Amino acid sequence: MTEPSLRDKLSKVMAERSANAEPQPEQLPETEKPLTKQEEANAEWKAFYAAVRAQMLKMRE
């Protein structure tokens, strides 16, 4: 196989791949981006501590 025909085949395959590729999802605004697992875990802990603090303040009254 000569080099020009190999390049032609490669460019044909790459063109087919890009034509058949799934469209990229739209980028979400910063406020609507899904949370990472670490951010989600941090949010759960913050909510837990807020609930504990609220309960403690309620018990002090």
Main structural class: mainly alpha
* Percent strand: under 5%
* Total beta strand runs: 0
The shape, in one word, is rod-shaped
Count of helix runs: 2
Provide a quick synopsis of the model.
Residues 1-15, 30-39 have a biased composition (Basic and acidic residues). Helix content is 69%, strand content 0%.
Protein model, in words:
- This protein has 61 residues and is mostly helical.
- It has a domain at 35-61.
- It contains two helices and no strands.
- The protein has helices spanning 3-20, 37-60.
- The longest helix is centred in the last third of the chain and has 24 residues, at 37-60.
- The N and C termini lie far apart (86 Å).
- Residues 1-15, 30-39 have a biased composition (Basic and acidic residues).
- Residues 1-39 are annotated as: Disordered.
